[in-house]
C-alpha cells in the first residue's frame, strides 16, 4: 500500500477501532488479504475519508458515519437481517450467510468469459437454471439480459475466449510488468504523472504525507 502496514493508505488504525475479518481474525494493521489492493483502498476511502460506509461482516452490518465534530462513529450494528433478502445463487457457498450466498466469485481461469462458448451453450441445454453451474448461470443470465433489451442479434459473444484466439497483447499484465510498474511508482513517490498537480487529490495528499514522514 501507500505507506506501511501501520499507516496503510494514509490512516493509522488506533484501538478500540479495528478491522474485522470473516473468521476470528481482526486487527489494526493493514495486513489483511487485499489490503494492498482495491479492498484496502476502498476500506480507507469509505471509512476514513468519506466517513460513511456500511460494512458487511458475515451476517453483521456495521453502519459508520461522521459525527458533528468530524469524528468517526459506528451508529448501528445490525445482526442476521440480510438472510431475509437472499437469493441463494451461489449454491457452492451454502455454508455462508447472505450476502455471500447471493453471488458467485469467479477467480483466475474459472471466469466464464474464459470458457468456450460452444461448451457453455451445450451446458445449459435442457437444464433448469438452478441446476446449472456458476459459469452456466452467468452465461444463461447474459443471454436473458441481451434478449430483454433486444440485443441478442447485435452483440457478438466473441469476447468469450475459446471462441477465438487470445488477444495479441494478452489478457492481463504479466508478473514482470506489474513488478516493473510498482518499482517505477515507488521510485516516483507513488506518483503516476510527471506533474504532481495532475494526480488525483488523494495521491497528492499521500505524497505530502510521505514527504513529511521522511523529513522527521
Could you characterize what this model shows?
By secondary structure, the chain is an alpha+beta fold. It is built from 5 helices and 5 strands; from the N terminus they run E-E-H-E-E-E-H-H-H-H.
What low-confidence regions span 5 or more consecutive residues with pLDDT below 50?
none
The helix/strand series, from N terminus to C terminus, equals: EEHEEEHHHH
Oligomeric state of the chains?
single chain
Q: How far is the N terminus from the C terminus?
A: 21 Å
The count of strands amounts to 5
The largest sheet is: 3 strands, antiparallel
Q: Report the portion of residues in β strands.
A: 5-15%
Average pLDDT value? 81
Classify the secondary structure makeup into a structural class: alpha+beta
- Global morphology: globular
Strand order of the largest sheet: 3-4-5
Q: Which range best describes the helical content: under 10%, 10-25%, 25-40%, 40-55%, 55-70% or over 70%?
A: 25-40%
What characteristics describe this protein?
single chain, 216 residues, alpha+beta, globular
Question: How would you concisely characterize the structure shown here?
Answer:
By secondary structure, the protein is α+β, with helices and mostly antiparallel strands. The chain is built from five helices and five strands, in the order ββαβββαααα. It has helices spanning 38-49, 117-124, 134-148, 175-187, 201-214, and strands spanning 19-20, 26-27, 52-57, 60-66, 72-79.
